Each structure stands twice: as structure tokens, then as C-alpha cells.
Amino acid sequence: MQLMRSDYTELTAHGRGYVTDLLKPDRTHDMLEAYGFAVTRSPAGTVSTEDAHREMAAIRADFGLREPYAPLLYRDRDAPLVTEVTRKAGSDHPAFHTGAAQGWHTDGLLEDIGTIRTTLLYCVRPAHGGGRTFLLNAGRVFDELRTEDPEAAEVLLRGTILGRRSTIPGAVREAVGPVFAELGDGHYATRYGEGQVERWYPKDAVEQKSLARALGYFRARRDDPDVRIDLLLQAGQCLIFRNDVLAHGRENFTDDPRCPRLLLRSLHTDAPGRTS
Ligand SMILES: [Fe+2]
Fold first, then answer.
1. Rounded to the nearest whole angstrom, what is the distance from the C-alpha of residue 105 to the centroid of ligand 1?
2. Greatest CA separation for the chain
3. What are the residue boundaries of the TauD/TfdA-like domain, all occurrences included (predicted)?
4. 20-24: which pairs have CB atoms within 8 A and are 24 or more residues apart?
5. What is the 3-state secondary structure (H, E, C) of 59-104?
6. How far is the CA of 206 from the centre of ligand 1 (A)?
């Protein structure tokens, strides 16, 4: 999966994006296959929350995605399968319900690498200010690292290098796994992240140094527009992306309390494909 600057057309923000119409699924499918993400646009422009749920169901059907997946972290919490991502006073979720920036991560904190293959983010209302979503072609950065510093890259493939720990009160759990895994088609599955939840487990001083080089490499590369896209979703737009191959994050945002930012999110264990 290559992200090439010259291929991006319509801009939705300062970064580069590509918005396709809901009614032109072929372009959306092509975009997803080539880049691992696409943005659809509701023909209506603005939508109600009910419309958004309906349109998400239509998008799922269009891409042949099964019903949303309930992540392990929320299994016992009676959470809806399509989650409202919005600021909520009193919520105990450390990332969902604040306006703070969210560091690089992949969805599915406790799942094995590659389990959650697709994330849908539907924008009902954008923030008053900020709130861009960032996507990083992590597999490509890793591929480059493998060429430039194979020893550093090797550490990220080791099966016990990265623990991700839930910080929700009452649900302190940790899942350990690799940062990258080969998918066999030249691409890599990833659970790359650098934020509050990661615990790194180098096995010795040599590996510690290799790990530091690997993470430093990612820090140096991840602002490069060749491998990174910033999208500001507008009302009625839905971002579909391959959570198993791209890392993502979010810019901080401010709300107008009368119409706070509201996104709907669903997670899927299958990848979007053509249904016809
Ligand atoms: Fe996320």
C-alpha cells in the first residue's frame, strides 16, 4: 500500500484527503484498495444521528462488512456496537469523551494484531475547532525501516515487545504482542502506537537500543505527508479505514456546547470488499 502525494485530489482540510460520493462506490472501493482508507459523503450533507446510523448500515452493506464487533474491553460493559464519540461529562473513558488530542494508535487495545481490520467513523457534527483525524501508513514506514535498519525493525516483529494496557478504572488489563506482523502479500498488520497505553518490553540492553532507534525512526517519519494524511471530517462524511494496516490519531478540539462534536464509530473484523 503506497500513499503518493500526487494522487490525492479533493482537499477537505489542510492535509490531503479524497472524498467520494456515496453514490459512486467504485471510486470508494478503488481508493480503499489503493490507500487503505476512503471518505464517503452523504448526499444530504447534514444528517441527524438516526440518519447517520442508517447510512452506516448502508455503507456496511456496500462494503460487505458484517455487523460491528464488540471489542474485548467493552464486552462486559453493555456498550452499544456503534459507539458515540463525543465529549461526555463524567465519562470514565480516557480518550473517547474528551477534547484532548489522541496519540497514534490502532483500535482494539486488547485484541490480537490484525483482529479489527476496519474502522468506520461517521461525522454527525464536527467540532467548533480542531478535531482532525490523522492516518499513518505505518506498514510503509516499517518497510523502509526494515531496509535501513533491519536490526531495529526486527524488534518490532517480536511477539512480546509491546503491551497495551487499558486505563479505564476497574478494567486494568494488558495485551502483549508484536508491533508488526507480515500479512504475506507484502503488507504488514500493525498495532503501532505511542501514547498513554503502551508498555515496551525489550529483553536486554541491545534490544532496548534497537527499540529506541525504531521508535525514533517512526517519530521522525510520521509527520511526512508522503505517509500521513490529516482529515477534517464534515457533517455527513464517513471515514472508512483499514485499522489493521494504518495507525491513527486525533488532534485536540474545542466544542460549541450547543452542538458538540459527535462521531459514530464501529469496528469490524473483516476488510471492506466488493459486494458485486
Ligand atoms: Fe481510534
1. 6
2. 57
3. 27-265
4. 22/55, 22/58, 22/59
5. HHHHHCCCCCCCCHHHHHHCCCCCEEECCCCCCCCCCCCCCCCEEE
6. 32
Taking the centre of ligand 1 as the mean of its atom positions, its distance from the CA of residue 107, in whole angstroms, is 5
Please give the distance, rounded to the nearest whole angstrom, from the Cα atom of residue 248 to the centre of ligand 1. 6
**Ligand 1 geometric centre to CA of 249 (Å):** 7
β partners of residue 230: 134
Question: Could you read off the pLDDT of 153-186 as tens digits, one per residue?
Answer: 999 999 999 999 987 777 688 999 999 998 876 7
Domain boundaries, the chain: 5-102+116-130+230-244+254-268
* Ligand 1 centroid from CA 221, angstroms: 20
The model's pLDDT over 27-73, given as tens digits with 9 standing for 90+, comes to: 677 777 777 888 888 877 778 999 999 999 999 998 899 999 988 88
**207 in Cβ contact with 8 (< 8 Å):** no
Q: Per the structure block, which three cell numbers stand in for 153?
A: 525493525
> Which range, 147-161, 229-243, 255-269, has the best average confidence (pLDDT)?
147-161
CA–centroid distance, residue 193 to ligand 1 (Å): 10
